[in-house]
Structures are given as C-alpha cells and as structure tokens.
Specification:
The protein is mainly α. The protein is 84% helix and 0% strand.
Amino acid sequence: MYNKISVYISACLGMTFFGIAFIVMGSVLPSVTAKYSLDPVGASSLVTFLPIGVLSGSLVFGPIVDRFGYKNLLIISTFISALGLIGLSYFDRLNLLRFCIFLIGFGGGILNGETNALVADICDGNERNAKLSFLGVFYGVGALGIPLLLGTLSKIYSYEIILSRTGFFMLLCIICFAVVRFPKPKHAQGFPIKKALSLIKEPILLLLSLVLFFQCCLEGLLNNWTTSYLTASTPIPDEKIIFSLTFLILGITLSRIALAFLLQSAKPYSVLTIGMIITWIGSILLYYFTHFTPVAIGLFLVGSGMAGVFPIVMGFIGNHYKETTGTAIGIVLFIGLCGNSLINYLMGYVSEVFGIKTFPVLILLILGLQAIALFCEKRKAKG
C-alpha cells in the first residue's frame, strides 16, 4: 500500500522540475547566444528543440504509466531532464546542445503529464481538483526559481555552474523517488490498446482537448509576446516591461494556492466561468491602458483568471477516464501544446499584417472560443 502524502510530495517535486525545464531556455538564451555568437536564426534553431521535446514527452508517457506505473518513469524522466541540464552546461558543440535541449523538453513533457495523471489517480471528487490546483503552484516554484537563481548568483557563478548544480540536485532527488511506494500499474497484465485508441473519438475528451488547446494558446501568447506588445504600444521603460511578466506568474501562482482551498467546495464550472470573466477584464486593461500600474494589474488579473483551467481540466479527465488516466491526459496535453506552438507561429503573421496592438484582441477572441468549447463540453458531460 502506498502513502498518499509521500506520493503527492513526489508529484510536486516532479512538477517543480517541469517548471525548471520549461523556463530554462528563456532564462539562459541570452548567455548562450553571446557565448556561441549566434545570430537570431541560430538562437531560434536551439530554442525550437525544447517544445519538440515537450510535445514528444507528452505524447509517449500516457500508455507507459497506465501499463507500467509511475515510479520508474518518474525516475527516468527526472534523469533525462537532469542529463540535459548538465549537458547544456558542459558540451560546446551546437548539435550536442540541441540534443541536450531536446532531452530537457522530453523529460519535462513526461514530468508534466505523469505528475498530473498521478495526482488525478490518487485523489477523488473535489479533493482531486484542489490537489491538482496546488500541484500547479510547484510549476510556478520551478519557473520562478531558475531565473531567480540565475539572477542572484550570476555575479558569482557562470550559468553553466548554476545549471549543472541544478541538474545534480535533480539526480539526488531520484533517491527520494526510489524509496517511495507508488500506486500499482492499472494494466499490469497488458495494456488495452483498442480502448486507448478509442479515446481519440471520445467527444468529451476532444472538447476538453479543445479547452486546453485554447488555454495553451493564451499561455503561449502571454509568455512570448507580452513584452513585444508593451514595448511597441506603451511608454513603459524596458526594465519595467520585463518585471511586468512577474505579475502574470504571480497571479497564476497565488490563485492556484487559493483554488486549492476553494475547489474543495466550489463547483468547477463556476470557477472556470468566473476565471474567464477575470481574464477578460485583465485583457481589457491591457488594451486600454499604457502605464505600468494598470498594465501590471491587468497581467495579474489575466494570470489569476487562467489559473484554474489546467488543474480543473485534469480533474475532469480523472473523473471521466479512471482506467486510462495517463493516456487520456497525454492526448489532451499533446493537443493543447500544439496550440502553444501554433499560436506563436500565427502571431508573427498577425503582428505583421494587423500590428502588434491586436495582441489583447486576439486574447479576447481565444477566450470566446474557449468559452464555447467549455459550454459544449458541459452540455455533453451532463447529457
């Protein structure tokens, strides 16, 4: 028998490592670009391997955890991401660097999916949504932690030393995973391939995938294009523009802490509806105001409003697909992360044709499409 608290702590640690993996390239890219004298095309070719790795990891983890369980894969995925971080620190050939960046993303994609699936499996009812929401806080710990470490220690240590020490710390945590007892595999006698393939045709799963697709579109826009929009559309100084992104992450993190308590009693659909309204208000502030304070408030509101979507959708999947939770979450994550990649590609053309000032309008449009997908899913689930 496994200890739920120990398993949950392991999942939170794994989610922290995903936060590190997902944000690390954005944090060290300027240093890597300077070290290897890369032009924009060369830098872009490096960064591209991270989302490719995350997508690949998100796609493969599901059938593995449903067939073999969580423990070994949690150890392996942590090892893969740690190996990528250490390699990024020590190797100096570009092809090896690309491979290491892919490893960071691949291990991170597995960590993201399996930790969500693990928490969805060990919890029930309202507790599932609450625990998934609190799990998301640890993404923020990792995502805020690595730039904080680099910013604080960069005057003393090189980024290579900081990354390698982070990688070695992750390897040490594998010992913790090794001694914890995890839930047994759901299909130890054989994985139901036909049942897994049939999930692709499930209307509820496809609608939840669509909700997460639009969520990842929003996150991709906000993480990658906010600074460009503020630079082009406001008189805010560059140093404050960079600082403003902190309010977005802070809004997500604090709201998920609050939701961990709120979702124990509140109705998930009501939380999602209120969250969309809050995100809409924040987007309006970004559109109409150009000074730092209202912009920071707008970003905080946007982050706060979006915070509940990911954990609640994971909770819905845990409720609907108890026998193939990992595979179902893997499908939804893969479709969702495709939205992140697609919107970044699309936004380049939108900003060129219509101007970067359409950024908040695009957020509002995506919010509307997400609301329609959620409404259809709710009707389907009740019908």
